[in-house]
Amino acid sequence: MSKEALLSLDGISVRFGAGRKSFRAVRGVSFELYAGETLSLVGESGSGKTTIGRAIMRVHPLSAGEIRYRGQRISGAVNARSERLLRQKIQMIFQDPMASLNERAKIDYIVSEGLYNFKLFKNEAERLAKVEKALLEVGLLPEFASRFPHEFSGGQRQRIGIARALVMEPEILIADEPISALDVSIRAQVINLLNQLKRDRGLSYLFIAHDLSVVRFISDRIAVIHRGRIVELAASEELFLRPLHPYTKALLSAVPIPDPEAEQKKKLVIYDPSIHDYGREEPIWAEAAPGHYLLGSPGELAAWSS
After folding, report:
1. The domain that contains 170 carries what CATH number?
2. Strand, coil or helix: what is 279?
3. How far apart are CA 62 and CA 55, in angstroms?
4. How far apart are CA 246 and CA 250, in angstroms?
5. 221 - beta bridge partners?
6. CA distances (Å), origin 211, targets 42, 118, 174, 187, 252
7. Domain boundary residue among 194, 211, 242?
8. Cβ distance 111 to 164 under 8 Å?
């Protein structure tokens, strides 16, 4: 039985600026997000992770390629019905819980904003019930609705941001580094919450992060991105047990080991992009093993897969 692809990216590129000052932030990225899975997009700062998330949300226009939701194109010019469907079914959780909430609005309005914009309630009682349900699902009390964002901790603010997304009844959540601004002690709580919501609601996540150790236990698959191109994509445990691309190996070597002696003895791998000679052989995207994809020249793919 084949998996159902909710979201498909086909060779998308995003370019900023024009003329000599133009910069291609994302180059020829393709992947599919399946129903009920968590696909993590991992790479260094500036690698294009957030740009991909914002391109899906139609914040950044594509310079090439196509994005489809349930087989229907959602990139470029779309009709009002498709735009409305996208805004409801694909929601985003932002990195900074301090900056993503309107400090002048009460939590009741913040969580209800999407409901107001799309008129997704019949009466005031139904709206309040939806807000209460969303707050309870993220572990917050309904009476918090009458408070302002500054009255909450960073972890609570992020839960409010998640509730704001959930109230729209989405199918896909794009989580843009949702725990990087939180204390270490709070990160596990938010990850556990996201996993619980995934099970309860059948959600699909595109989880954006720069730390491989964070995504190991939340991801079904992991895509590693470098300078706007995905260089490796595999099942979570497969990637950790059998990394093939030199950049992935370098990222994994930087993951801290919770054993002082082992941490002291480990060897840090430094990635050198000059090892690739793509002037002679263009890199191709190929399946090195079942479900394990790599970007490299034919010679590199043969060497890395052996």
Report:
1. 3.40.50.300
2. coil
3. 7
4. 6
5. 39, 235
6. 7, 36, 17, 12, 9
7. 242
8. yes
What distance in Å separates the CA atoms of residue 38 and residue 173, rounded to the nearest whole number?
A: 9
Task: Please indicate, yes or no, whether residues 164 and 260 belong to a single structural domain of this protein.
Answer: no
* 88 and 69 Cβ atoms separated by less than 8 Å: no
Asked if residue 10 and residue 131 are part of one domain, the reply reads: yes
Residue type, 264: Q
Of the two residues 59 and 214, the one the predictor is more confident about is 59
Domain match, 40 and 172 both? yes
- Separation of alpha carbons 27 and 185, rounded Å: 36
Q: Tell whether 168 and 224 lie within a shared domain.
A: yes
Residues 211 and 260 in one domain: no
Does residue 225 contact residue 42 with C-beta atoms inside 8 Å?
yes
Do you know the residue count of the chain?
306
pLDDT category at 159 given cuts 50, 70, 90 is very high
Domain extent for 48: 5-242
Please tell me the total count of domains within the chain: 2
Residue 159 is encoded by which pair of tokens?
């839960």
Q: How far apart are CA 168 and CA 181, in angstroms?
A: 24
Backbone angles phi, psi at 221, to 5 degrees: -135, 155
Q: Band of the pLDDT at 216, cuts 50, 70, 90?
A: confident
Question: What are the tokens at 296?
Answer: 């490299």
For residues 116 and 205, state if they share a domain: yes
What's the whole-number average pLDDT of the chain? 91
104 Cβ contact list (under 8 Å, min separation 6): 148
Q: How far is Cα 203 from Cα 35, in angstroms, rounded to an integer?
A: 7
3 state DSSP class of 183: coil
Is the same domain home to 82 and 140?
yes
CB burial class (10 A; 0-12, 13-18, 19+) of residue 1? exposed
| Segments in the chain forming alpha helices (H) | 49-56, 80-89, 107-118, 124-137, 154-166, 184-201, 212-215, 236-241, 246-253, 260-265, 298-305
Are residues 160 and 111 part of one domain? Answer: yes
User: What are residue 286's DSSP bridge partners?
Assistant: 294
- Cα-Cα-Cα-Cα torsion 292, 30, 200, 138, nearest 10 degrees, comes to 120
